[in-house]
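Backbone-to-sequence.
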């Protein structure tokens, strides 16, 4: 085989955090104008990726005291990237937690949050099948591992919140 017709395959190593940045232009191309590269929620190449082991043990160059002062953060369950903080929890339509089913019958338990970080949005905002009347939604993915984490809900102007799928997060006690 001369390689000209060979298909490119991704290996597990291609999806390591430092290599995922190269996938963003491809994802933007495949999904149209909502490129992940232009999203304010995507981790930029200058940001330090999350440590794959968040077991609480200090890094070699960190002191144990630094860990004790660290604020708890909510992590992507797949790659352990920090995506929000417990103090970002909010109430929407009477509660922080909600259980919904999409049109395909898939059930999600979501928690509502004011802001996220290290995430990207896919697709254009749509009001179709919105779980929150008056709000449009977009899919939210982890900017490191591209896992679907939930949805961004917007209601004209600056009013917005994030509905994150709770079983896709690591939430501190």
């Amino acid at each position: 085989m001369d390689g000209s017709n060979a298909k490119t395959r991704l290996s597990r190593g291609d999806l390591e955090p430092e290599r995922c940045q190269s996938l963003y232009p491809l994802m933007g191309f495949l999904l149209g104008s909502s490129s992940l590269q232009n999203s304010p929620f995507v981790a930029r190449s200058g940001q330090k990726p999350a440590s794959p082991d968040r077991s609480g043990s200090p890094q070699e160059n960190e002191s144990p005291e630094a860990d004790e002062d660290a604020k708890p953060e909510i992590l992507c369950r797949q790659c352990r990237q920090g995506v929000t903080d417990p103090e970002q929890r909010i109430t929407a339509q009477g509660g922080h937690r909600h259980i919904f089913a999409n049109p395909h019958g898939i059930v999600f338990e979501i928690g509502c949050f004011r802001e996220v970080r290290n995430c990207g949005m896919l697709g254009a905002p749509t009001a179709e099948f919105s779980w929150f009347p008056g709000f449009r939604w977009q899919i939210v993915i982890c900017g490191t591992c591209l896992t679907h984490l939930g949805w961004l809900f917007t209601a004209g102007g600056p009013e917005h919140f994030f509905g994150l799928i709770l079983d896709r997060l690591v939430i501190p006690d």
